[in-house]
Amino acid sequence: MLKKIRQFLFKAMLWFFGITIGTVILFRFVPVPFTLLMLQRCVEQQFDSKDMKLKKDWVDLKDISNKMQLAVVCSEDQNFLFHHGFDFNAIEKAMKYNEKQQKRKKHRTRGASTISQQTAKNAFLFPARNFIRKGLEVYFTALIEIFWSKQRIMEVYLNVIEMGDGIYGVEAASQTYFHKHAKNLSQAEAARIAACLPNPIKFNAGSPTSYVLKREAFISNQMSLWGGVLNYDMGEDD
Q1: What CATH code is assigned to 66-235?
Q2: CA 197 to CA 210: how far, in whole Å?
Q3: Percent helix, strand, coil in the chain (nearest 5)?
Q4: Which among 14, 189, 190, 200 would be 20 to 30 A from 63, CA to CA?
Q5: Looking at residue 16, what is its pLDDT?
Q6: Distance between CA 60 and CA 152 in Å, rounded?
Q7: Counting Cβ atoms within 10 Å, is residue 85 exposed (0-12), middle (13-18) or buried (19+)?
């Protein structure tokens, strides 16, 4: 009996690794057609008796403004070009900050997810907060860092991330909020879209709050300090 269980677990493990690694390699070359978050949002809309909204339009990285790519790096993960999926310094800082917030009995916390982690979560996993999903996020983050380039990670990230109610990817966001293609976004427009990413359902790049405008100004300033260009060659010697 134990032998059969071990054989079953071994085969199941082989299937798991084969399917997941194969899927990651496949999506290195082809667009991600949909995500589990998109599916969840569509179901939620139906339960809320709302019209189903799903705006997405996959575009290649060359058709996304470099300013938009730089904006999300400055906003979400300034070590994106240099780490291998996980920013351990940011994790340590976030843990210390959250411990202080907990002692003060405040609910506001700080995350340390990199663009790679967010890409893995959005492209491959279900929306949830538990140890199983977090463990799978670590696993898929490692896989995409092994099999994908930084450019591919950025391309998938900017095509699948939620950017508004029923809006996924920067091309759909650009068309919705600024009536232009993603490749034509200005620095200010890119910074504003990036400013909404912490909560794209609450914040709207088309009708920015004072908080969004402050974040936009901060991100735009960071972009200028970077020289206004995201140079992927910077991380090649890491």
Answers
A1: 1.10.3810.10
A2: 15
A3: 60, 5, 35
A4: 200
A5: 95
A6: 9
A7: buried
Amino acid identity of residue 149, one-letter, is S
Residue range 73-103, pLDDT digits in tens: 999 999 999 999 988 887 777 777 666 666 6
Other Cβ atoms less than 10 A from the Cβ of 116: the count is 26
d(Cα 114, Cα 4) in Å, to the nearest integer?
41
- Alpha carbons 53 and 164: distance in angstroms, whole number: 10
Is residue 187 within 8 A of residue 223, CB to CB? The reply is: yes
Token pair for 15: 């299937």
| Residue of 85, 53, 87, 92 whose CA lies nearest to 172 | 53
Residues composing the chain: 238
Tokens found for residue 19: 């399917």
CA distance linking residue 134 with residue 110, whole number of Å: 16
C-beta separation of 203 from 193 below 8 A: no
Give the pairing type, strands 162-164 and 55-56: unpaired
Query: Tens digit of pLDDT for each residue in 100-141?
Result: 666 666 656 566 689 999 999 999 998 878 889 899 999 999
CA pair distance 21, 37, nearest whole angstrom: 21
The one-letter code for the residue type at 97 is Y
Angle at 218 between CA 144 and CA 77, to 5 degrees: 15
The residues pairing with 168 across neighbouring beta strands, listed in sequence order, are 56, 162
